C-alpha cells in the first residue's frame, strides 16, 4: 500500500512551487507531488490559475489527474475546464464513475458535452446518458449506475463469482442488491453474510427484504435525511416501477449536506448569494449589501422612534445609557430562540410536537431567563445609580423584551417554514433588526407609562 505524506501548504512551498512552474521544472513538481494525496494536490492548485494548474496536472498520471479534477468545487472546475479540449476531457471523464462523469458533463457547454459523450466507453456512455435525464438535485441525478446485483435464485457461489466480474467496474460497494429477472429490487445481502454462508445456499434464503430505498424523483435533501436516519453507507435507487436503477453512496450525500450547511450559514449571516472570499469585489458586495441596507433601515426607524420620547430623554438623560443593553439583549435572545427552532426543523419529528406545547416551553424558558437577567440589571443599576424608579423601569422593560424576543425568535422561523421559505432567514439580520425595533419600543413605552 502506498504511503502518503502529511501535507501542509505554506507560503514558502507555494512560492517555490510557483517558481518551478515558471521555470518548467518538471522534476521538482513530480518529486513534490509524488507522495501527496490527491485531495491535498487539489488544495494546492487553488493557488494557481487554470493554465498553471493544467501544466501541473499534465505531469501526473491520468488516474490522479481525473481524481483531482473531480474533487474541484463546481465553480472552480467550470473555469478550469475551459483550458481543456474535448479529447483531453474525454480521457478524464472515461476514468470517472457515472455520477461524477454526469456532473462534469452538466457543467460544460452542450457542444463540448456531446463531443465527450461520443468518445466515452460504450458502457459509461449508456450510463451517463441515462443520468443526464435527471435534475441534479434529485436522487436520479445524485446516483451512480455502478453497483453489484444478483438474482434471487442464484447460489452463494454464483453470487460471489458475479461479484468478481461486476466489481471491475465498481470502485467501492457495501452490499449486493438482490433483484428478479425484471430487475425489480427485492432486498440486499451483506458481504459478510455471503462469505460466512454455505456456498450451495440460495440467495433468496439469506437476503434481507427489509431494505431502505429511495425513488429517482426524491429531493437530495430527503435522501440525505434518510441515509442519516438509518445510518446507511449506501442506498439503492429505484424508479416508479420498483426497478433498481442505481445507488447513492455516503460520499455523495456528504457533499449535499456540506452544500446545505454552507447555504444556511450564509443566509444566517445575511449573505443573499453563494459567494466565497476570493470571488470578485462586486459579487461579494452584491451578496452582502441587501441585509446591511435592511439593518440601516432598522437603525433609522429606531432613531425615529426614540425621537417620539424626546421629552423623557431630556428629563432623565440616564435613560439613553440602557438603550444598547436593551437592544443587545433582545437581539441575542431572538437569535438563540430562532437558531434552536431552525436546528429542530431539520428533524421531521419536531413538527409533530404541536405549536402550543412549543410556545409554552419557550415562554417558560423566557420567564426564567428574564427573571434572572432583570434581577442582575436591577442590582447593578442600584449600585451604580442608587435607588430609584429608573432601576425598576429598566428591569421591567428588560424582562418584557426577553419574553417578546423569545416569542418572535420562535414564531418567525415556523411561519417562514410554513410558507415554504428557508427558516434560516430568521436566524440572521432579520431577527436582529426586528428585535432591535421591538426592544426600543418596549423600553420607551415602559418609560412613558412608569416615569
Please explain how this structure is put together.
With 451 residues, the protein is mainly alpha-helical. It has three domains: 11-135, MgtE N-terminal domain-like (MgtE N-terminal fold), CATH 1.25.60.10; 149-256, CBS-domain (Roll); 281-450, Tetracycline Repressor, domain 2 (Orthogonal Bundle). It is 62% helix and 6% strand. A three-stranded mixed β-sheet has the order 1-2-3. A three-stranded mixed β-sheet has the order 4-5-6. It is extended and about 90 Å long.
Q: How would a textbook summarize the main sheet?
A: 3 strands, mixed
Could you tell me the mean pLDDT?
A: 83
CATH architectural name of the largest domain: Orthogonal Bundle
Distance N to C terminus: 79 Å
Please work out how many helical segments DSSP would assign: 21
Count of all domains: 3
Can you count the beta strands? Answer: 6
CATH homologous superfamily label of the largest domain: SLC41 divalent cation transporters, integral membrane domain
Cα shape:
extended
Question: Hey, roughly how much beta strand do the residues contain?
Answer: 5-15%
Give a topology summary.
Elements: H1 11-22, H2 26-33, H3 38-45, H4 50-57, H5 62-71, H6 74-80, H7 86-93, H8 98-107, H9 110-119, H10 122-131, H11 139-142, E1 149-151, H12 156-166, E2 175-179, E3 185-190, H13 191-196, E4 214-215, H14 220-230, E5 234-238, E6 244-249, H15 250-268, H16 281-307, H17 310-315, H18 323-345, H19 355-385, H20 389-418, H21 429-450
Parallel strand pairs: 1-2, 4-5
Antiparallel strand pairs: 2-3, 5-6
Helix pairs in contact: 3-5, 7-9, 8-10, 14-15, 16-21, 18-20, 18-21, 19-20, 20-21
